[in-house]
Amino acid sequence: MKIAYCMPPVTGLRDGLIAVTSRASKKEVVYKKHFLHPSFNISLRPFCITHDMPALYSWIRKPGRAVNAVAISYLYADHSDFTRSFMALVNNRTPVCQIDICNAEKDELYELYPASPGDYVIRVMMNTRKRTARDLHIKALQTSIEYFFQFPEIRKIIAQPEMDNKLYNEILYKSGFQFEDQVYNQYTVSNVFVCTRESLNEAHGRKYETL
To answer: What is the pTM assigned to this prediction?
Structure first.
């Protein structure tokens, strides 16, 4: 698969991810990458509850009361000064991946895993009902991570999949994340994966640097 081009992110990178996103329209594409053979693009824009919640409903195997909690959490993130939510789409239309990114020092993981300045935590939701790691999932996650690494304040990105979620672990590994540790709480055991600019470069074989 060859890459045709990447659309530069919005201006104001030095202002930081949170500030830039707060100025972006909910329908505004902040980053786009076009792939060849087959030809398609993956775009990233801020999460919009009105337009994007139906997709999340269809991805959650047992929605129940959890759906309302999810919607409330996105409303909270939209007004937060340390977390943001995004949706990755194929050809600007079909949702394929939803990502939350949060300053690690403000995230609940901070109680279990020592975070440093520049560490950010992501949580990912995908349509994985077929329980297979599709190349599309990997490209969508990589494209999102590339956008986040455009911002100088983001030095390392951390993911915390449950140990028994083999699919999520596989997608992270193939996207450029590296296993670092395990954390335990009273409910589950989770793996800790980290991604840096260097490991992302190695994953898809091209140089990527902070602007």
So the answer is: 0.84
